[in-house]
Design goal:
- By secondary structure, the protein is α+β, with helices and mostly antiparallel strands.
- It has one domain: Sufe protein. Chain: A, CATH 3.90.1010.
- The protein is 40% helix and 19% strand.
- The chain has four helices and three strands, in the order αβββααα.
- It has helices at residues 2-13, 62-75, 80-94, 122-137, and strands spanning 26-32, 37-46, 50-59.
- Strands 1-2-3 form a three-stranded antiparallel β-sheet.
- β1 and β2 form a beta hairpin.
- α1 (2-13) crosses α2 and α3 (80-94) runs antiparallel to α4.
- The protein is globular and about 40 Å long.
């Protein structure tokens, strides 16, 4: 458990891919009015329908920021279809549809499985994943 705490602390203190993505990009935004968390995910789709650059901004609790930091690392350079499947699977794990042990396949994201013991905090973790899904959906309009 100690290693998980270190991973979470590192992503909170130094979030990966934090900041605005300049220029044209797909954007997804989500907020949780209950706790005040806000997350914005910006990405560019590159050749072969892969996630190119991806950044996020967030205001809120550590779990929202940490989850977004980990998420951006997981989806970089992945095919959009694979990203959609990843969103569905991660969401399913946190919503109890799949065993929490399945998070182990996603590396550092496994550090967040303790959140499932606190159901009220699950929305904090999933907020960025919902914003990512919104950003990906913008491609359907093109």
């Amino acid at each position: 458990m100690d290693i998980y705490q270190k991973v979470i602390l590192e992503h909170f203190k130094n979030p990966h891919n934090f900041g605005e993505l300049p220029g044209e990009c797909r954007i997804g935004e989500r907020s949780n009015p209950v706790c005040g968390d806000e997350v914005k995910v910006m990405l560019r789709v590159e050749a072969q329908n892969r996630v190119g650059e991806i950044k996020f901004t967030a205001r809120g609790c550590a779990l929202s920021i940490v989850s977004a930091s980990m998420m951006t690392e997981l989806v970089k350079a992945k095919n959009l279809e694979a990203v959609q499947k990843l969103i569905a699977h991660v969401s399913g794990v946190f919503q109890g549809q799949f065993p929490s042990a399945e998070l182990e396949r996603y590396g550092e994201l496994a550090a967040l499985k303790g959140v499932m013991e606190h159901p009220v905090r699950i929305k904090c973790v999933l907020l960025c994943w919902q914003a990512l899904e919104e950003a990906l959906g913008q491609g359907d309009e093109e």
